[in-house]
Amino acid sequence: NWTMSSFIDKELERIRTLVGPTGSVIGAVSGGVDSTVAAVLMKRAIGDRFHAVLVDNGVMRLNECAQVKKTLSDNLGINLTVADASDLFLGRLKGVTDPERKRKIIGNTFIEVFESESYKIDEISRQKGLGPIEWLLQGTLYPDVIESISFKGPSATIKSHHNVGGLLENMRLKLIEPLRELFKDEVRALGSILEIPDELVWRHPFPGPGIAIRVLGEVTPEQVQIARLADNIYIDEIKKAGLYRQISQAYAALLPVRSVGVMGDQRTYEQVIALRAVESKDFMTADWFPMPYETLKRISNRIINEVKGVNRVLYDVSSKPPSTIEFE
Ligand code: XMP
């Protein structure tokens, strides 16, 4: 792809000129396509002077943190720090059921953890004589730029993402946004050229608050585990059925109710999993995906047999609007 290759050359040159021969950059990565592509570009441009930070918030998908670490650090060679803050996040979520409070707690805790990692990395970098961190990487795309200019003013770009504005002020960091002229499909094309594994390039979007907004009601480690296991089976079967790329986003939610069932000659009274799958161009509107019955049957059997504590599976047939893609 000629256009993308020349984009890469130009962008690497632009990054090197901006950052200079000694400057350092820090950025959060999530395992999503945007932050990964942005990180790989930085790695190509300035090597280990780019520091990536992955915050484990305790509500990522099953084995996701380890997988992301393996791909980014081992396979793509990115200078990565993993901050395991799962106990901190889950501790603060204890007893909280309100969706907006969950989001606020996770958002604020993320900023706190990312900032504290940034200070540590900055300190180590200075001690090694490599100079301070001067730049903050953001995987902002063109649609985000447009949205924040038209609705909130240009300086709000960062707020709509991770709101690490404190870092910009306290550490006097400058923003670097290599994807700010690209649309999602261009970022994916770029990811392929940069030899990022398909699995990552085509991964469904995943919200910052993660499984916490897919466990309705209180988010306990036990509930997170049930939602994770069910979600893992669901996505696994969607992939086996060859439907993953056709679907824009799919996940399993754990509902805050119990229902009666029967197992052998025993009455059960256990939890309910709801399956969501949507097709969408821009995630502003979405249609529920017509999942084949055979696939649904396999998924339902597997979840009920393999996930302890679940005795019923439902399929969500609501479109957006008036429903949203997430349950909370
Ligand atoms: P809704 O539920 O509003 O979701 O229809 C639209 C898209 O946005 C994602 N989403 C989020 N992404 N932080 C994120 O990074 C969030 O707090 C958040 N909430 C929703 C959702 O997964 C879907 O793709």
Automatic annotation (TrEMBL):
It comes from the Eukaryota. This is GMP synthase (Glutamine-hydrolyzing). It comes from Kickxella alabastrina. It is an enzyme of class 6 (ligase). Its EC number is 6.3.5.2. Keywords: Ligase.
